[in-house]
Amino acid sequence: MIRNASLRQLKVFESVARNLSVTRAAEELFLTQPTVSIQIKQLTELVGLPLTEQIGKRLYLTEAGRELQKVCKRVFDDLDNYEMLVSDLKGMKAGKLSLAVITTAKYFIPRLLGQFCQRYPGIDVKLKVTNRERVLERMAENLDDLYVLGVPSDDPDVVFEPFLENPLVILAPSDHPLARQTSIPPTALAGESFIMREAGSGVRLAVEQFFKERGVSLKVRMELGSNETIKQAVAGGLGIAALSAHALVLDRTSDDIAILDVEGFPLKRHLYLAYPQNRQMSVVGTTFLSFLKQEGVLFAEKYLQGLESIRRSNGSLAYWGEDPGQRT
Ligand code: PGA
User: Fold this and answer.
1) Based on the structure, what is the number of domains in the chain?
2) Do 156 and 280 fall into the same domain?
């Protein structure tokens, strides 16, 4: 009976089957060739059918051998997974972390991940950057451990924790006539050509809501799916746009773009960490969450200094701090 086979015999067979060679299996496992042959012979007796056949100089697997190779793969994969679980339980934090974040988060999450991966070198990270709608879809499909979003959904089964401020600013080419004005009423933007993010974007949702509430209908000239492309389009004089101030932190020296002093802007918003309420989060996910809560706060303080020094084109500061716990 195959259930009387030892793990050692299966391991030897797996190596022979993969290498299609007793010699190479012996080298790989640091065994002698007769030892390998004896293990295969014993396994063959347990199965009651030949597992390999020699034709000329080459070794082939029989049908029974090919099926046993599949069984070995499943057994050893399961054992690998179990090993990951045990190292988690021992607090060694090894495994895979999967994150899905909105586009604004791409400016700071990779930096935090850098610190995190240094601290936990055994953790492999997969990061998906996409828009709000797609992040919500991934959450519904349960594809990732943790999510970062700009506008919480009303799903009662998801926990949203405010993490970092995410002010929206209005950008224009620096030679735009509005660039030198102060306290521009939102209605003054009605005639302007707007460059808008794609449908499904959280930024678009926030901008549309802001102007709709004030009875202003915007003239959308162009729809672009990337914050970086929008920045370049504004710099190139194609129109004005709303973007998260995060998109300006690293290159706020750009002379071609101005932040307009529009009343109501910067629009105060937050980024939220989100995860399903009722699902047991993986140990790796929990580790990252607590890392974000400890280190992320220190990081955020430094990072926000970058936001605080962003000035409007008329010289006034475009950003001011606020209570990070406040949900907008
Ligand atoms: P988005 O979200 O990538 O869906 O536009 C960004 C944000 O809300 O800041």
Assistant:
1) 3
2) yes
Tokens encoding 138: 């991934």
Boundaries of domain holding 277 = 93-163+271-306
Strand duo 193-197 + 240-244: pairing: parallel
Ligand 1 centroid–CA 225 distance in Å is 11
pLDDT along the chain (328 residues), means of 10: 92 96 96 96 96 93 96 83 74 80 90 88 90 92 89 89 88 91 94 94 94 95 93 93 86 76 91 86 83 79 66 60 38
What whole-number distance in Å separates Cα of residue 88 and Cα of residue 176?
56
Tell whether pTM > 0.70.
no
Segment 114-127, tens digit of pLDDT = 889 988 888 889 99
* Distance from Cα 245 to the centre of ligand 1, integer Å: 11
Residues 175 and 259 occupy one common structural domain: yes
Whether residues 247 and 180 share a domain: the answer is yes
162 CA distance to ligand 1 middle (Å): 15
Query: Does residue 103 have its Cβ closer than 6 Å to ligand 1?
Result: yes
> How far is the C-alpha of 305 from the C-alpha of 252, rounded, in Å?
13
Residues 154 and 222 in one domain: no
Closest ligand 1 atom to the C-alpha of 130?
Answer: 3
Taking the CA of residue 204 as reference, the ligand 1 atom at the shortest distance is 5
Per-residue model confidence as pLDDT tens digits over 193-217 = 999 999 999 999 999 999 999 999 9
CA dist., res. 49 & res. 42, Å (int): 11
CA of 256 from ligand 1 middle (Å) equals: 23
Round to whole Å and give the CA distance between 226 and 290. 30
DSSP assigned state of 133: H
18, 43, 73 - which closes a domain: 73
Task: CATH number of the domain at 24, please.
Answer: 1.10.10.10
